[in-house]
UniProtKB/TrEMBL annotation:
Keyword Iron: no
SUPFAM superfamilies: P-loop containing nucleoside triphosphate hydrolases
Subunit (UniProt): Binds to RNA polymerase II (RNAPII).
Family of this protein: Belongs to the GPN-loop GTPase family.
GO molecular-function term, one example from the UniProt record: GTPase activity
Keywords linked to the UniProt accession: GTP-binding, Hydrolase, Nucleotide-binding
Pfam family, any one: ATP_bind_1
Reported function: Small GTPase required for proper nuclear import of RNA polymerase II and III (RNAPII and RNAPIII). May act at an RNAP assembly step prior to nuclear import.
Identification of the protein by name: GPN-loop GTPase 3
Matching InterPro entries: Gpn, Gpn3, P-loop_NTPase
Superkingdom of the source species: Eukaryota
Methyltransferase among keywords: no
CDD domains: GPN3
Amino acid sequence: MGPAGSGKSTYCSTMITHAQTTSRTMHLMNLDPAAEEFTYKPAVDIKDLISLEDVQEELGYGPNGGLIYCLEYLIQNIDFLEDELGHDDDDYLLIDLPGQIELYTAHTIIPQLVSTLHRLDYKVCGVYLLDATFVDSAPKFFAGVLSAMSAMVQLEIPHINVLSKCDLLPPAKRRDIERYLNPERELLVGDIGSATRPKFQALNHALVQLIEEYNMVSFLPLDVADEESVEMVLSCVDNAVQYGEDLEPKEPKEFDNDDGEEL
């Protein structure tokens, strides 16, 4: 499942392109009713059921209210999703979800969607995208980590954090980002302490301890121009959902030793 956060469209197209390059089947499921352009045609599209534009025009909702209405309508008509998914045991779905953080921390819509996928025997992994160009200070990094943790607690599924748009960072900035991929406690305390007022020192220590105990300070850098970076992220998702463990091995082709023709 996923991704939630910034750069999700680029993430989806990058992963599907990589899958095709490695002769792997991956289907895009669009559950963002506001999405308009796709590099790859979705196999399942919520807009075949309801669109944000129609909700805004007919009901007078704003963008956020209309988006929530669309997803609630999907949950109320979940048979649409069940019919569209099909029954292929080997389906690998990449689900494009809206990026509004409140959907993953304050509403029950996405957890209900997860429950439906589990009922249909899908293994689900959440991919949380944090814009690397946004992480230019310790307080912003903390904000990203805590929002990711909130989503993890709400969804209760395997969860992977990704720093997206690393390809857009200049070399100096990229070195700064590397400090936050797996930072030590002293680094976090020092950085956040120097960026906030002294009276918040006790709070800063408590937040660092919380992050450390839940092992949430772990991000994968994603550079869409680097195939190894893309493969690393996909491999972590595969491991989280145990992809491939239940696939039936295919019979190898047999060839005649003399002329190389298949028997």
